[in-house]
């Protein structure tokens, strides 16, 4: 039974948002939660790919998306947006990165700005869901190889090399055989091939 | 001047490029074209940001006038079909009676059907202290002091028993909710029932009344000192040291940076654009017909009301 808050306008996120936030266990309460998320968002903007617990990653992802979308909408001449960026990015040189690198990168995109990929669990110890959180368009190699026919995929490169090796060895073998046994074997084989042709013609 | 400077700089740049290229060609084997390509690409790149384009929609200003057309932001209670049906019902109701633009802090007169009243209608005048609810469940609360007794009446905006809603004074106050009038001196929420409507000229922005009320001494209904109210003048008089300390402890300065909290409270621009595109045309039509009717009334022949 609430009315939507009309004092602020926000642009829609391109990710799924849960109806309620996660508390993220913390002795300092809501303030500690926000502090944790600030650290994570700063790390994400700085390193562009980080691995962490799934819950924290999903929460931090939402804040990072909101921060980038605000930066795209208002630009760097908008005081409240600048304040927000100043609050969320603990290292101040990252504010320049946000407005000069990330905004041009994501201005024209229709996708979300971040990706969240589930990482394998630990085999021993506490079972916590792990995830990899990354900015789209980061300089690292892709984690998800959907195209197995990609020529540059490491497995394919190795397989191609192996095939090439095998072919080369075969050719070498044939070449060696030619040198050792001489023309007699070749004549025999050619005769053998010619023989079955004659009855078909007649 | 600007043109001249631009031209001269480009010439200087061109000459420098030519000079550098001539010199470098002797040293390197790189082709000439490699220098020019990135410059051309930067000029041609069109920067299309959907986010910025969507935020520029002029229909978004309607959200202040008709906040109840936006659904409840809680995703558990969202249902696109129900919301759409409610919107059509609301428009149909608006065709029947004139629901004017008003805000928290405006003074309204509401007439409702009342089977027990003389003449079967009941009229109440008061200041709007709260607007709540979305869709057909939108409601507002009027407050007045009658015979030294505070009276509050909650009306549903789209209640079929409402005969008319009249705005006597259209204005805003400094706060979103005026619930603190319950603990304020009665003079701040006393309005005469025979108030004449004040008419604002067309096109003027809604005035903000900067009045600051005085609270009665404690006990209060709420801890007003923790709510950062703009419209209360004497809140510090009634506080003890203990209250000030607790207010400091309870402050949440990070809340205004909590981007997801804001996000969960509102309807995003893209969704709002769809809603306003659906509703805008009919709302405009309704406004136009109201204007025409009111003009006819003003220039009509006065009827004799004798006998």
From TrEMBL, chain A:
Recall the GO molecular function terms of this protein's record.
structural constituent of ribosome
Superkingdom of origin: Eukaryota
In the UniProt record, does the keyword RNA-binding occur?
no
Q: Which Pfam families match?
A: Ribosomal_L17
Keyword field: Ribonucleoprotein, Ribosomal protein
Xref: SUPFAM superfamilies: Prokaryotic ribosomal protein L17
| Gene Ontology biological-process entries | translation
* Membrane-spanning residues: none
Query: Which residue windows does the record flag with biased composition (Basic and acidic residues)?
Result: 188-202
- Does Transcription count among this protein's keywords? no
Quote the cellular component terms of the Gene Ontology held in the record.
mitochondrial large ribosomal subunit
Region (Disordered) residue spans: 177-202
The family assignment reads: Belongs to the bacterial ribosomal protein bL17 family.
Protein name according to UniProt: Large ribosomal subunit protein bL17m
TrEMBL record, chain B:
Query: What's the main place this protein lives?
Result: mitochondrion
Q: Please, which domain of life does this record's source organism belong to?
A: Eukaryota
- InterPro entries attached here? Ribosomal_bL19, Ribosomal_bL19_sf, Translation_prot_SH3-like_sf
**Presence of keyword Ribonucleoprotein:** yes
Q: Gene3D superfamilies, alphabetically?
A: 2.30.30.790
Alphabetized GO MF terms: structural constituent of ribosome
GO BP terms in the entry: translation
Q: Which family does it belong to?
A: Belongs to the bacterial ribosomal protein bL19 family.
Query: What PANTHER family would the database entry show?
Result: LARGE RIBOSOMAL SUBUNIT PROTEIN BL19M, RIBOSOMAL PROTEIN L19
Annotated protein name in UniProt: Large ribosomal subunit protein bL19m
């Amino acid at each position: 039974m609430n009315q939507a808050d009309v004092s602020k306008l926000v642009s829609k996120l391109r990710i799924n948002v849960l109806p309620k936030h996660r508390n993220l266990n913390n002795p300092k309460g809501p303030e500690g939660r926000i502090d944790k998320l600030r650290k994570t968002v700063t790390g994400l903007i700085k390193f562009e790919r980080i691995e962490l617990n799934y819950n924290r990653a999903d929460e931090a992802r939402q804040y990072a998306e909101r921060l980038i979308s605000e930066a795209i909408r208002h630009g760097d001449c908008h005081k409240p947006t600048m304040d927000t960026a100043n609050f969320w990015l603990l290292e101040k040189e990252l504010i320049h990165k946000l407005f000069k690198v990330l905004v041009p990168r994501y201005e024209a995109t229709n996708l979300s700005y971040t990706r969240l990929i589930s990482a394998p669990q630990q085999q021993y110890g506490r079972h916590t869901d792990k995830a990899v959180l990354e900015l789209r368009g980061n300089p690292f190699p892709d984690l998800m190889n959907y195209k197995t026919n990609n020529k540059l995929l490491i497995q394919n490169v190795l397989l191609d090399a192996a095939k090439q090796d095998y072919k080369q060895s075969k050719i070498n073998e044939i070449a060696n055989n030619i040198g050792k046994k001489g023309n007699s074997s070749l004549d025999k084989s050619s005769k053998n091939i010619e023989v079955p042709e004659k009855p078909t013609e007649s | 001047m600007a043109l001249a400077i631009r031209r001269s700089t480009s010439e200087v740049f061109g000459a420098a490029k030519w000079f550098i290229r001539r010199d470098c060609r002797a040293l390197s084997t790189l082709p000439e074209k490699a220098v020019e390509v990135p410059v051309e690409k930067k000029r041609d790149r069109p920067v299309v940001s959907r986010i910025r384009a969507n935020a520029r929609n002029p229909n978004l200003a309607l959200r202040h006038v008709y906040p109840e057309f936006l659904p409840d932001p809680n995703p558990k209670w969202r249902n696109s079909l129900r919301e759409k049906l409610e919107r059509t019902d609301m428009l149909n109701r608006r065709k029947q009676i004139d629901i004017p633009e008003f805000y928290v802090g405006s003074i309204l007169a509401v007439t409702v059907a009342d089977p027990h009243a003389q003449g079967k209608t009941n009229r109440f005048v008061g200041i709007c202290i709260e607007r709540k609810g979305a869709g057909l469940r939108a409601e507002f609360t009027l407050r007045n002091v009658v015979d030294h007794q505070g009276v509050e009446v909650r009306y549903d905006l789209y209640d079929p028993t409402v005969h008319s809603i009249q705005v006597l004074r259209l204005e805003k106050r400094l706060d979103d909710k005026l619930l603190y009038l319950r603990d304020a001196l009665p003079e701040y929420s006393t309005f005469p029932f025979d108030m004449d409507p004040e008419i604002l000229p067309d096109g003027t922005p809604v005035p903000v009344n900067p009045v600051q009320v005085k609270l009665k001494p404690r006990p209060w209904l709420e801890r007003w000192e923790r709510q950062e109210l703009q419209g209360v003048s004497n809140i510090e008089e009634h506080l003890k040291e203990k209250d000030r300390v607790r207010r400091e402890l309870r402050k949440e300065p990070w809340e205004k940076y909590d981007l997801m909290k804001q996000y969960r409270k509102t309807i995003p621009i893209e969704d709002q654009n769809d809603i306003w595109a659906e509703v805008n045309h009919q709302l405009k039509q309704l406004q136009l017909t109201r204007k025409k009717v009111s003009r006819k009334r003003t220039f009509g022949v006065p009827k004799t009301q004798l006998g």
